[in-house]
Amino acid sequence: PAYQQGLLPLALLLSRTRGVPDVAYDANPGTGVPVYDTFGYSGWIEIGGTSMGAPQWAALIAIANSMRVPAGKAPLSASSILPGIYSTAFGSGLHDVTIGNNGSCGALCNAKKEYDFITGEGSPRASNLIPALAALP
User: Fold this and answer.
1) What does each C-alpha distance from 60 to 106, 112, 135 come to in angstroms?
2) What is the mean pLDDT of residues 59-77?
3) Which one, 50, 113, 116, 128, has the greatest CB density within 10 A?
4) Which residues are CB-contacts of 25 (< 8 A; sequence separation ≥ 6)?
5) 11 phi and psi, to 5 degrees?
């Protein structure tokens, strides 16, 4: 899509596919969050990865929507959020993750400045991201 042009390798753009991921969250279960779970567990466990990141991204969007709806704006959807995330307006709303890797597949597995195939555009800075999402048209 247009919002990813200039960020992705030409071969991917020519194949007309979209690059993923768009964004990141702390995916290390060793630095995750404590969760109390009695279904299959006997109390407190530490989780990370998608089990933690996806619901927290959903919560950030829900908070932004709780500000948008009283202002007469439509709730956010992927088609309204993604172009905004790739615009410069989100520069202060996202932390550019530049260190780390995900495997041994060469440069594609390494985090780098700006967009990369490990962390996308970065992880959220909620205090800046939520107002930016709420302000989207």
Assistant:
1) 33, 25, 14
2) 95
3) 116
4) 52, 53, 54, 56, 57, 123, 124
5) -60, -40
Cis, bond preceding 21 (omega within 30 deg of 0): yes
Give the pLDDT band of residue 89 (cuts 50, 70, 90): low
Give the model confidence (pLDDT) of 98-123 as tens digits.
Answer: 998 888 878 888 999 988 888 889 99
pLDDT, average across residues 59-78:
94
Where does the chain have alpha helices with state H?
Answer: 10-14, 50-68, 78-85, 126-135
Report the DSSP pairing between strands 123-124 and 43-47: unpaired
Average pLDDT, the chain: 85
DSSP-assigned states of every residue in 43-65: EEEEE-THHHHHHHHHHHHHHHH
Tally the residues of the chain.
137
Q: How far apart are CA 129 and CA 131, in angstroms?
A: 6
Distance of CA 79 to the CA centre of its chain: 14
